[in-house]
Amino acid sequence: MHQQSETTLMRRMKFRLLLNQISKFIFMLSAFFGLFFLVVLLVRVVSEGIGAINIDFLTGKLSTQPERAGIMGAILGTFWLMLVVAPVTMFLGVGTAIYLEMYAKKGKLVGFIQTNISNLAGVPSIVYGILGLTVFVRVLDLGSVVLAGGLTMSLLILPIVIVASQEAIRAIPFQLSEASYGLGATKWQTIQRIILPAALPGILTGAILSLSRAIGETAPLVVIGIPALLIPFPGGIMDRFTVLPMQIYYWTLDASLVAEYANLAAATIIVLLVALFVLNSTAIIIRNKFQRVF
């Protein structure tokens, strides 16, 4: 009887070890599968676009002639768009998270709000474009300007920042807050001097992910009527503009008629990837600095 149970145990152990090896192989294959196609995509983009990148391309205006086309207008438009999106999203997102976690009384209403915020993070981006077109472009009569585009993109990424900020605040040990209250600090002083500095790395992580999504989105901007035409360089938030993803989209369409536009689209993708890399690297450095401090 003892020998039989030992034999059964050994069989189960061998089966589990085999299952572990199979699972490990499948997961490794999945990782290499995604990595392979990412490398293929990057190699193709770089090989097609690196030759088109030069000073004239980076500083020139849009043109109907591929050899004279530049993306400075799209670069400036992307810069102005992020100049609207970043402060609006951080102020509203972090403020909402602080209210829900620190001030709002737990109940059905707060639960309903939090459930809807989580659901909004999965809404297709084109729906936010329709909302931006209705509210900002038509009702507020802003037109297809930087401010309307920035507010629309802020709505798109706001749920991500709220959820990430809430999780960062919840991760702070409650003993820190209790110690602050015990020393006579008010709730706002505790939030300002204890909770926010300690939660800042997590908040910045959410901001990194959300801004990276916003800088690469195209569908909402297409819906609100952002052009990719020969328009002047934007000089403020009330100017008409275009952005790098929009330029990539239209040049990709034009590549079916003029082959040179495919190289211009690939070159613009490289510029956008570099911008994303710089943005993410800067934010990660800032986040790591605060993690070491707190």
Automatic annotation (TrEMBL):
Database matches in Pfam families? BPD_transp_1 (PF00528)
Q: Which UniProt keywords apply?
A: Cell membrane, Membrane, Transmembrane, Transmembrane helix, Transport
The segment(s) forming the ABC transmembrane type-1 domain are 75-282
What membrane topology is given? Multi-pass membrane protein
Note the superkingdom of the native organism. Answer: Bacteria
Q: Where does this protein reside within or beyond the cell?
A: Cell membrane
The main location class comes to: membrane
Q: Where are the transmembrane segments?
A: 71-100, 120-139, 145-164, 221-241, 261-286
What family, per the record?
A: Belongs to the binding-protein-dependent transport system permease family. CysTW subfamily.
Q: Which PANTHER family does the entry mention?
A: PHOSPHATE TRANSPORT SYSTEM PERMEASE PROTEIN PSTA, PHOSPHATE TRANSPORT SYSTEM PERMEASE PROTEIN PSTA-RELATED
Under the heading NCBIfam families, the entry gives: 3a0107s02c (TIGR00974)
What is the protein's given name?
Phosphate transport system permease protein PstA
Q: Tell me what organism the protein belongs to.
A: Sporosarcina saromensis
